[in-house]
Write a structure and sequence with these properties.
This protein has one helix and 17 strands. It is mostly beta strands.
Length: about 300
């Protein structure tokens, strides 16, 4: 019997006996590679690379646990020929235990030029999410347990999110809510609630030497189902071809990230998340793999943020 299934059984049995609802904030993954693909957190980054850009990320969390969380996301976005507009799509799949969440969103961004070096972007995203739990895969050792009679419990909900991004040549700040809705999957005497996430981000770019840029930044995440999370990031960009980053997620993990520019259009990245504190007992670190590709179909006359 693997460790993850053992944990799942104990949690479900205890909670169903006590009649306590389950609050599950883990349905939304906490990616480490958002520094390389920020549109997954804030739709206002749509079109920021000034070309058609596609990025795919695969996340494997707590790798020593069988059945531990896995997540995949694909983001594609591009400016339109009209320089003040951009569109994109976001596709996600997350799995933890016996629950799978799939989501699709379309994004529209309007970008307002303040002056030659600054602009502000406003974005909306909308789509749908489908959450499925297969309760029969949980072995409760009670074959006639009425709470487990339904093999499939499903929740289909709309998605609606928004974001704002301000950036200059050396600074950026953004705020976003990827989804305003809070779906609640109910079955028998338990429920899983995906609470709304709020993100606030700020960073600067500093010239640290010839063809070397230092980009310190902070990301705050608030979710009423969990504690306030803060990421403190320190990224080095060398010759615009190599990205190296070390991040501290307060009381949760240390994150190490790298990305290499393989060709003018292709980038490959990897990040490792080392859990600390109470999270260190959950079965090893987490790995993320990223592939990005830029299709230079047309370019905008806007200033392009190259380091964030």
């Amino acid at each position: 019997m693997n460790t993850w299934r053992t944990i799942s059984k104990l949690l479900f049995l205890i909670l169903m006996v006590q009649g306590i609802p389950v609050v599950w904030a883990q349905i939304e993954p906490a990616y480490s590679s958002y520094q390389l693909a920020p549109v997954i957190l804030n739709p206002a980054y749509t079109g920021s690379e000034e070309v058609l850009s596609v990025a795919a990320i695969d996340r494997r969390q707590w790798t020593l646990l069988d059945g531990a969380p896995t997540s995949q996301v694909v983001a594609a976005h591009s400016p339109l020929k009209k320089n003040n507009q951009a569109v994109g799509v976001l596709m996600q799949r997350d799995k933890i235990g016996v629950t799978v969440r799939s989501a699709f969103s379309g994004i529209y961004s309007y970008r307002l030029r303040i002056n030659e070096q600054q602009r502000i972007s406003f974005a909306m995203q909308g789509g749908f999410s489908n959450l499925v739990s297969r309760l029969s895969e949980l072995d409760t050792r009670l074959p006639d347990d009425p709470a487990m009679r339904n093999d499939r419990v499903e929740l289909f909900t709309p998605l609606l999110g928004a974001g704002i991004l301000w950036n200059s040549q050396r600074q950026f700040a953004g705020i976003s809510v990827p989804d305003f809705f809070e779906p609640n999957l109910r079955a028998a005497r338990f429920s899983t609630i995906n609470y709304r996430n709020y993100f606030l981000q700020y960073g600067v770019m500093v010239n640290a030497g010839r063809q070397i840029r230092w980009v310190p930044s902070v990301l705050l995440k608030y979710n009423k189902g969990t504690q306030l999370l803060a990421d403190f990031n320190s990224m080095i960009v060398m010759k615009e071809t190599l990205w190296l980053s070390c991040s501290y997620r307060h009381s949760v993990s240390w994150n190490f990230l790298m990305q290499a520019q393989i060709t003018n259009q292709l980038t490959i990245g990897y990040s490792y998340e080392y859990p600390i504190g109470i999270y260190s007992a959950w079965g090893g670190g987490s790995h993320e793999f990223k592939v990005g590709y830029r299709f230079e179909l047309f370019k905008s006359n806007y200033y392009m943020p190259r380091y964030f």
